[in-house]
Write a structure and sequence with these properties.
Helix content is 50%, strand content 16%. It has 250 residues and is an alpha/beta fold. The termini are far apart. 41% of the residues are buried.
């Protein structure tokens, strides 16, 4: 069985980290499975994407035993980080809205997995930690790029350099997650959000996430031009025509 599974059900692509005995940590095969799952849910029929995990912990980051047990840990870790970062970048670049549900623990590269989603639902007991300094390593898989954009540079630096463990409520206050719910309500809330997206304006929402995520790497004029081109390309589409008609007929 794949360490990351996927399925498409009624327009919703579901990606599930399925390695609970290892706290859904990533070795190279798991990173490769994630890349394949992202490719699968990029299908045209998918209108929204959910990202969840089996077991008590969402993701413990990289599987330390996998690279320490390799003949060349440096080469193994380099490939692992590149493959995982590439899969997560592909997920972040999809013109489809993504909602993640996390519980238990999110550590190290698990933060990058989580932050590749647009909306993040966390259980009340979830803990968040950088983890890298504890084993003498540095952020990878896009964590150093995504984290300061989510919480601001100074908070990101404190989080990275002090070993601070954030509670779910602190993560909500910092803007690291979107909402906090009871543990048994995570999947239900994730499914509600994805269903609403899939049934409303998934094309517009997908392009909105693309515009917002790409804005960090564009100049103001470049972003404005992209916005103008995108809205012009959508206005005569079936989705916009249906919703504009409904709006004007209210």
């Amino acid at each position: 069985m794949a360490a990351v599974t996927h399925q498409i059900v009624d327009g919703i692509g579901r990606i599930v980290l399925s390695r609970p005995e290892q706290s859904n940590s990533f070795d190279l095969p798991t990173a490769q499975d994630l890349a394949l799952a992202v490719e699968a849910v990029s299908a045209d029929e998918v209108r929204a994407i959910t990202l969840t995990a089996e077991g008590k912990r969402f993701c413990a980051g990289g599987d330390v035993t996998s690279f320490l047990g390799s003949d060349d840990p440096g080469a193994y870790l380099f490939e692992l980080a590149n493959v995982l970062e590439g899969g997560l970048r592909d997920l972040a670049d999809l013109p489809k809205p993504v909602v993640a549900g996390v519980r238990g623990a999110v550590a190290g590269a698990g933060l990058a997995v989580m932050l590749s989603a647009d909306v993040i639902v966390a259980s009340r007991a979830t803990k968040f930690v950088m983890a890298y300094p504890g084993i003498g390593l540095t952020p990878d898989c896009g964590v150093s790029y995504l984290l300061p954009r989510a919480v601001g540079q100074q908070r990101a630096l404190e989080f990275a350099l002090t070993g601070r463990v954030l509670s779910a409520d602190e993560a909500l206050d910092w803007g690291l997650v979107t909402s906090v719910v009871d543990d048994d309500a995570v999947e239900t809330r994730v499914d509600e959000i994805a269903r609403t997206w899939a049934d409303s304006a998934p094309t517009a929402l997908g392009h909105a996430r693309r515009l917002l995520r790409s804005s960090w790497d564009a100049t103001g004029p470049e972003q404005g031009a992209d916005e103008s081109a995108t809205i012009a390309s959508l206005v005569m589409g079936d989705e916009a025509q249906r919703l504009v008609k409904a709006f004007t007929n209210r």
